[in-house]
Amino acid sequence: MQDHQGNNPTPSKGGVRQQEQLTVSEGRFRNLLEQANDLIQSADASGRFVYVNPAWQALLGYSAEEARKLTFEQIIAPEYLELCRQVYERLKRGEVVSTVETVFVGKDRQRIIVEGNVSGQFNKGVFVATWGIFRNVTERKKTEEMLRLRTQELERMNALMVGREQQMVEMKRKYGIQTSGGVTIPVVLRQFEQVMVGTVMSSPVVTINEDESLLVAARMMAEKAVGALVVVTARGRLGIITERDFLTQTAKGLKKADKISVKSVMSSPVITVSPETTIDQASHLLKEMHIRRLPVVNQGQLVGIVTQTTLILALREQVITALKRNMEELKRMNTLMVGRELMMVKLKRRLQEQPTAQTKGLYGGG
User: What pTM did the predictor assign?
Assistant: First the structure.
């Protein structure tokens, strides 16, 4: 627009200041994306990447320039390709896809298991891009698989020990021998179910006031290297803001992050547990509610937080400990069994060597 002399009018001081603030806000928010530990990516309507953050580049081995020549289909493992295409179509229709688990294939053909959230970006109702934020869960999945195999091993060993005990009972019945005491089979398969959340939770918790801006929250997450912040409201209630909430806002645009309050995007009320909740109960709750974090509250006070990864690692340690104990008990029982079997052989030999009449006398024969 020009003035009556044909010159472009000078913007007002207020307009210049507002534009400068928006530019600074957008720059800060983009810096947070660049510094994030999670893998952040954006693809246009055709599926071609338009943005990948440094963490994404470092893990997959592609530079930003190389990534812009790729479509999302070119980094997906073949067995997950159809699933990801379906997710992409759902995003184009405006549907919300809360959690995605897939396998990325890096430039070196290394398979990387990831899970995260994706959302569609629209401009005046037209689908223009997707935004995704993913976390590398390869090690966690390996731990879960190890946990499954160790649990199977515990079950096998427990069955073997029970079989040994039954064999001992049968030998006692067969030879009519009474022994003092007995062998106790430790039931180790459920030991880890008794571990309390209070022993594995993270504390203190990184919290934020509900009136703070989204920009402040993002900066805190980056500085503390956490994926979520617990929000403390004016009424003492708890809320939570996660990387998924940032993804949703990113899809809407990077501007005005310093004007959006935490209160407007947080999830509240939140599901909580007590320190006395077992890690087995907490794990089932996370799975049932499709969430990844549980604040821990004791007598109305926030005392910690547990995550899906924390519980998996705790379960792993408990299973490893139980497996070691079970192996030691199995060795002890095996030694005991060998000793008793030798005793049975010696006793049987002695009985066979005794005269018939004396043997009958021993058993009350006429």
Answer: 0.54
